[in-house]
Amino acid sequence: MLDFSGVNLVYIGIGAGVLALLMAWINSRRVEQFKITNPRVEELTQAIREGSMAFLNAEYRILVLFVISVAILLALFMPNQLIAMTFVLGAMTSAVAGNIGMRIATRANGRTATAAQEGGLARALDVAFSGGAVMGMAVAGLGLLGISLLLVSFNEGISIITGFGMGASSIALFARVAAVFIPKQQMLVQILSVKLKLVFPKMTPETLQPLLIMWVIMSVM
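RESULT FIELD:
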């Protein structure tokens, strides 16, 4: 059995975080080794990647305003100023992890389809598992490394963990809600517009748009 007596566990956390990030990099390289041989799949993969990154960047531009606003409130009303600073650092860490996850997911999807077509289920699972492991290891590694480095730098355990965790969780929550809700609503709006045009072929865009907007509002409520 390993004996960690006399060893600062914070430094073990730093080492574990670096190791997790190394594993994320190794798995990302494994995904990159699989080549997409079908030009149509390559074209679709590139289009999905461009659209996904555009959506993520637009979302992050809005979340920057949220993070700044909350950080200002924390700095004004919380007795410990470290909470505001670690909140921002946690949000930045979560944003980096989300960016890594989006990039590897949009690279792995076309490669998984190609692997399934050429090598069957086992090869497809290999690509998919490697792609998913990148996100998992990146989240764990960045979180563990960030908290450990802050604990080494400042002797404020509870304040650091509170601020960092709140910042990281808030970005992850908004990213998850937007990533699920917005594409779903867009798809349903398109389906509903097609159905309305089939039922009411003479309906103009001017009369169709208010109905779609009202439907989206009612579905949110």
